[in-house]
Amino acid sequence: RAHFFRPATEPAQWHRSRPGSPCAMANLASSAGAEPSVPNGDLTMIQVAPPEADVAQGVSEQPSAFPSSQGSPTSRRSRWREGGSVQAALGFATVTAESGISDSVPSRSRADELINVDELVSPGWLSRLGCRRRRRKLACIEAAEDRAISVGQLENLLAYVDHHCDKEGWTSSNPTTTDLKLNSNMIDFYDVVHWVVKPATKTDCCSYVELVATDKQASSWFVSHWWGQPMKLFVACLRQHQRDRGSNLAGKHEARYFYWVCAYANNPWTESNGLGDSCQSSFRRAIENSLGTVTIVDDTAMMFSRIWCSYEIFLALATNRGAPRYLYDVYTALDVENSVGITDGLLEGEGQRDKRDREEAFPFWLILAGLDVEVAKAVASQEQDRRRILNSIADIGDLDARPPDSHANFDRVNRLIRSRFACIGISNAATKDVADRLSKQISESGIDSLALDLAFLKYDDLALGLLRAALPVQLRHLDVHWPFSKMGSDLGFGLAEAILGTSHLTNLSLNLICSGLGDEPGVALIKAVASLKHIEQLHLELSKNKLGDDFVEVFVGMIRRMAVLRRVRVSLFDNQFGDKGKKSLRALQNELQGRPSVQYWVLQC
């Protein structure tokens, strides 16, 4: 992707570029009559005559693009930006290997003239120095999935917007409101692309990340969001996400993540949205290569009506892999300085109560908005995108065909997204109507993995009814966190009833510490677990209850009969076991130690 020039004093100048690049240049002086020579191979080589006097005169109307008065060569990757691009200054024509010479590059727009790429890289340094500096080399990152952006680079972009928006009188990029004057708090992604990204990348025909990065930046997190959200609120969410999740990398706080954001990762001049490439598209590879996906919910919940957002969330939730588990976080901005997020699982060093306190400020109505997703009714800025996404979901080969009004796969996408937000909001259900709605979405979702945190639900009886109704029949992984419940016996019997309806479970985790479980409900619960014939991983936290020897007898028999059990962790501290029960548990410990089929076991009693 290198572009270079030889000195004008040499017999000829050569330009080297990729075939098909819209930025390939030729014929510095069309009056010289030089014909482009396009040999075969990976590179296009075009020989042209040196510029004539009239061309040089045209250059003198602008500040020189060359660092010396003799017109010495300057690389495309280290070009001065003061007078604009060399292409625009000399009025170069464009050429591709397929079409030959095209019309000259049009004169730059007003927005293009305002861009100083160095200021995007280090605005603070430039403002303190009060001058411009020679730009760094362009980072040529071939794979779009490696063009993620850091929070620091986003902060630099915001600083540029703050400095230029009001001073230069930016107006809305929306064709219907072009007279609307913008301020920096109003700038959304459409405006940023119009006023900054495209003008800044026009000369080099590259992505925004390639301008501000020094090397490839592999995606840590994929970001799904609506382009109409103000940039400041978007950056506030990612800033908070990095603070929350940053401690998960090697135990370091504020670890540096890179976020894959389509507006900055894609080349706006050459790359399509990638829908035609199926699973090989850059955004799908970015999703699969990331630790997880972050969904940024705007304060109007508009993103739930956008088809791109629904499609990205669906792909993220449908991503199945082993360790590490794919994560899905949801964040929203309360204001330009404060954001709150709901994370997938606990953060490093965080307890359940800490998680509850951290997430409490998340607006519950935004979670409920996720229950109304209708992918077939979602909209896009480009009708072609909407048509292609729906056909892709429906597995229709011709992406440009008219999509069906309804399809089984549309229903699958809706159920998957709705159930995820129902699980997120389940601990905040305050009324029976809301709880019933959430449990219905979960039970009809068709999901095979479910984690429920009921520790801080306001009404225990509401949670128990919700649990009975919510478990899908085909569930394979179930994690119920409900310590310190006040339900006592009803908890054991109700949970047993719920588990009996899930015969396909292979992974079961129950945290019922200090929940008042006695022998009778405990035995009922263990008998229900014993009826599951496919359990491979079992994790029971039953400490500080009222379990006795009858429970131990049924529990030991269950473990002995579980032929496919591979991993088991059981905690039974501070219960009411007699000598007989303690002896049986010690014998079970010895049996597990000599049982080769059990790869991992912990029995604490």
Note down, in words, how this protein is organized.
The protein has a six-stranded mixed β-sheet. The chain starts with 12 loop residues before the first strand and ends with a strand. The protein is elongated. The protein is an alpha/beta fold and 605 residues long. Helices cover 36% and strands 13% of the residues. The protein is built from 22 helices and 17 strands.
Describe the secondary structure blueprint for this structure.
Elements: E1 13-17, E2 25-26, E3 44-48, H1 53-59, H2 86-90, E4 93-96, E5 100-104, H3 110-113, H4 117-121, H5 123-129, E6 149-150, H6 151-168, H7 189-201, H8 208-212, E7 221-224, H9 231-245, E8 258-260, H10 262-265, H11 282-289, E9 292-296, H12 307-317, E10 327-333, E11 339-342, H13 352-359, H14 364-369, H15 383-393, H16 408-425, H17 432-443, E12 449-453, H18 460-470, E13 477-481, H19 489-500, E14 507-511, H20 519-530, E15 537-541, H21 549-561, E16 567-571, H22 579-593, E17 600-604
Parallel strand pairs: 7-8, 7-9, 9-10, 12-13, 13-14, 14-15, 15-16, 16-17
Antiparallel strand pairs: 1-3, 2-4, 4-5, 6-8, 10-11
Give a quick rundown of the structure:
The protein is of the alpha/beta class.
Largest sheet: 6 strands, mixed
Low-confidence stretches: 1-114, 125-134, 248-253
Q: On the 0-100 scale, what is the average pLDDT?
A: 78
Helix-strand makeup class: alpha/beta
**End-to-end distance, in Å?**
65 Å
Strand order in the largest sheet: 6-8-7-9-10-11
Keywords:
17 strands; alpha/beta; elongated; 605 residues; disordered N terminus; 6-stranded mixed sheet; single chain; 22 helices; 6-stranded parallel sheet
